[in-house]
Fold this protein.
Amino acid sequence: MVLDGFGRAIDYLRISLTDRCNLRCRYCMPIDGLHFAPEPELLTAEEIQTVVQAAAGLGFRKVRLTGGEPTLRADVVDITARIKAVPGIRDVSMTTNAIRMPSLAMALKSAGLDRVNVHVDALAADRVADLMRWGSADALWAGVAACEAAGLAPIKLNVVVTRGYNDDPAELAALAALSCSKPWTVRFIELMPLGAGEESDFAIDHYVPNDRVRERIEAALGPLLPVPNADPSDEASNFRFAGAPGGVGFISPVSAPYCGTCNRMRMTADGRFHLCLLHDDELDVREVLRGDHPSANARRAAVAAVLERAVAAKPTGHALRQGIYTELRRMHAIGG
């Protein structure tokens, strides 16, 4: 197990497979003016496997595949299988919009994917089209159904609450009510400003605190009962309606930061350890991966040394309340 400078055990690696996405959510990506990492700059499946092997040797036990949209990688099934085969890795998950899951869910499950978090911001078709832009409600829910059929459980639905788009009581209640009929956790996430583009201004202008979200849900559906977190590093405050098979979570990085229990390290698709979601600090691991090494073991050791430096340099937390946030990368290039 590797500890950062504040005594936190860091054992969870979030790997962005690509900075491309097949949606253009208003708070994440503009329609025009985007620049993506060229294909040669992206880490290969073998390089990703090497990083995970090095991480596992340091005590990392969980890996999450993110994007952009990770299912856009043609080799996503191979990457998943390589990661799952690494000794010491106990949990492999994915954050996805699930649009490509009807053709991929079974193969990903067979390759070793354990569970998914699916990005679903609304139920109403017109709201999905307005907020997520290139998405359709039918495509999103077909993807969720495919994940469920493949046994990728537990399913968590991520809802980014955006003032004027999906924050009215009826929409919030309809989303939360999914936990009453399905063993899903519906998680409501506060908007965060990320990057120097228009979406950061959008996030600031359309922010809704989660205490207001909870009030609106409970006014419509009744009280939410607290559920103790099984994992102290879980970023969500978890609840359940009485008798419900699923749960409701609130992730509140702005109003109730959870940095003190952070156990995560992020790696970008172009091979940088991004030390904190809301800071710009990064360490290059791609250069080490592609350097001259006498053996595979030497390459893994070199990668492990960079990862140890990254963990040691991890900041204590973000500074959103001081108006400080990452400016060099947009959310789609970090992976959440």
